[in-house]
From TrEMBL:
Residues 18-78 form the HTH tetR-type domain. Keywords: DNA-binding, Transcription, Transcription regulation. This is AcrR family transcriptional regulator. The keyword Repeat does not apply. Signal peptide: none annotated. The lineage of its organism: Bacteria, Bacillati, Actinomycetota, Actinomycetes, Pseudonocardiales. Residues 41-60 bind DNA.
């Protein structure tokens, strides 16, 4: 089958313009976010994208290939962890990017895709890989912080959950906007907790 998490779909030369492709990919993400993989239809993609359905079929003969490419196209919505040399600022910036991304259809589509265990295993693998890549980026940044003495030894997965968990809670509740002050408080509390619970030798 074309387009899997291990064999990323390649862009075909010629054909539709970059603008049309972008419209189709954006429409795909929105529909998967709204209806899940099971409710995904080429005709709806074409209508939402404002193109003829043959434009979709001609560029993506396989439905899963289209969904995988659409998800990978918008992977930056999840955010990454920069390395400016200032751990606190890097984590605060990451939380701000993450909070903005959580409000976009991309993340909802990814969450839908990770649940598509039966109808679209290839899409689920791609979505899982994207989340794993974000976790790996956090791990690399924490490793650098430990090597520089900014952090004591810490469990990468737990640290990432402590940092990002409150963001998901605030954004998903939708009761108020997530602010930079929120991000700073979260980062300060987590960093203080990690440092305070490190055994002294």
């Amino acid at each position: 089958m074309a387009g899997t998490a291990d064999q990323l779909p390649t862009r075909r030369p010629g054909g539709r313009t970059a603008r049309v492709r972008a419209q189709i990919l954006a429409a795909t993400v929105e529909l998967v976010a709204r209806n899940g993989i099971a409710g995904f239809r080429y005709e709806e993609v074409a209508e939402l994208a404002g193109v003829h359905k043959t434009s979709v079929y001609r560029n993506w003969a396989d439905r899963e290939e289209l969904v995988v490419e659409a998800l990978l196209q918008y992977v930056d919505d999840l955010g990454s962890v920069a390395d400016t040399g200032d751990l606190r600022r890097d984590l605060v910036d990451f939380l701000m990017v993450l909070s903005e991304g959580l409000g976009r259809p991309t993340v909802r589509a990814l969450e839908q895709a990770t649940q598509a265990t039966h109808e679209s295993p290839a899409v689920r693998r791609a979505a899982t890989r994207i989340f794993e890549e974000r976790a790996a980026a956090m791990r690399r940044r924490i490793e650098l912080a430990m090597a520089r003495g900014e952090l004591p030894p810490v469990d990468y997965s737990l640290f990432g959950e402590m940092i990002s968990g409150p963001v998901h809670l605030i954004v998903n509740r939708g009761l108020r906007p997530f602010t930079r002050a929120d991000a700073e408080r979260i980062v300060d509390l987590v960093l203080a907790g990690v440092r305070a619970t490190t055994p002294h030798t």
